[in-house]
Amino acid sequence: MKTFLALALAACIATPAFAAGDAGSGKQKSESCKACHGADGNTPTGPDFPRLAGQHYDYLLKALKDYKSGARKNPIMGGQVGGLSAQDMADLAAYFSSQPGTLHVIR
Amino acid sequence: MRIPLALLILGALSLPAHAQSGNADAAKGKVSMCIGCHGIAMYKTAFPEVYSVPMIAGQSPEYIVKALQAYRAGDRSHPTMRGIAKGLSDQDMADVAAYYGGTGKAAR
User: Fold this and answer.
1) Is B76–A59 a contact, with Cβ atoms under 8 angstroms apart?
2) Between the N and C ends of chain A, which has fewer C-beta atoms within 10 Å?
3) Above 60 in pLDDT, residue A25?
């Protein structure tokens, strides 16, 4: 019984709450992001485009989901996310959050 | 003709391309509301759903102003940020943006 419980618990822990993103796949899907956010996600091509490199995975995923649902409105991003699946968004968030960047926390 | 043209150019130059310039020092009295979430590494917002609060230091001042304006206009949905942004003047936004966008590692 103890072994069974331990296995059941391990299975619960190992099961992700949602599909985790794959940074490698995200890199391959990031081609159209580069035009604004820069090749590495850390060198935006316009002054009001955000840096993505090193930003938190779950925040990036939330932003993409909000663009897709319309909760966050931006003419450029609204058009970009139309063709993205949930897995695409998770992969892109995984890729950009794993890139070395200059975002940081100050008080 | 020469003088009016010069005046016209001068007038055009003095118009700001976008929002007024921010003062990072003036922001020091304005960022107390930001610090509670954005000043804590790995802090998560809990309402209306749980996810990590974004790192904002190192973003460009222009992006930070744009984000605050979007919250104020209702184009971004986070309730707390909407409430905070509605209480900020354009000058407040510029100052806060200069503070977070002007930190050492933000150099473009």
Assistant:
1) no
2) N
3) yes
Task: Identify all chain A residues contacting B58, using CB atoms and an 8 Å cutoff.
Answer: 51, 101-104
CA distance A58 to A89: 11
Q: Does the residue B3 lie in any domain?
A: no
Q: Which domains does chain A have, with CATH numbers?
A: 21-98 (1.10.760.10)
Number of domains in chain B: 1
Which residue range(s) make up the domain with B59? 19-106
Comparing alpha-carbon positions, the chain A residue that sits nearest to B64 is A48
Task: Say what the pLDDT of residue B102 is.
Answer: 82
When CB atoms are compared, the residue of A50, A71, A107 closest to B77 is A71
Torsion of Cα atoms, A24 then A25 then A28 then A33, to 10°: -100
How buried is residue A86: exposed, middle or buried, by Cβ count under 10 Å (0-12/13-18/19+)?
Answer: middle
User: For A70-74, B40-44, B58-62, B102-106, which range has the lowest pLDDT when averaged over its residues?
Assistant: B102-106
Q: Inter-chain contact B39–A103, Cβ cutoff 8 Å? A: no
Q: What pLDDT sits at residue A106?
A: 93
Give the C-alpha separation, A34 to A53, whole Å. Answer: 12
> How does pLDDT run across B26-42, given as a tens digit for each residue?
999 999 999 999 999 99
**Across A71-80, average pLDDT:** 96
Interface predicted TM-score (ipTM) of this complex, two decimals = 0.82
Helices (H), ranges, B39-74 = 61-73
List beta partners, residue B57.
Answer: A104, B59
